[in-house]
Amino acid sequence: QAQQVESGGDLVQPGGSLNLSCTASGMIFSDHVMAWFRQAPGKQREWVATITNIGATVYGKFVEGRFTISRNNAQNTVYLEMNSLKPEDTAVYSCAGRYYTTPDYTYWGQGTQVTVSA
User: How many Cα atoms occupy the beta-carbon half-sphere of 108 within 13 Å?
Assistant: First the structure.
């Protein structure tokens, strides 16, 4: 059974940086498109970034060049480097995966809390 485990969430001051990781198991990682989503309290889940199985990347408009998604297929891990963090980036960040021919994300992690506050 496929599983994804996120880590790296923390409390950080505005303007700070965090690196999130998501390690997958039970799947052929290199065949999967991976993405990060986030959900703030009282808000709907929001897409953050996607990296395809061949390494192409796409970002949500609000990212504005502050975040970088990457992957290491040898370690079955996807990363989200976040810089210039703002209080409005506070949310639970979750990674998701889908087989590259499947339209919907079928694998989800439990999430990691990111809090941006002075």
Answer: 12
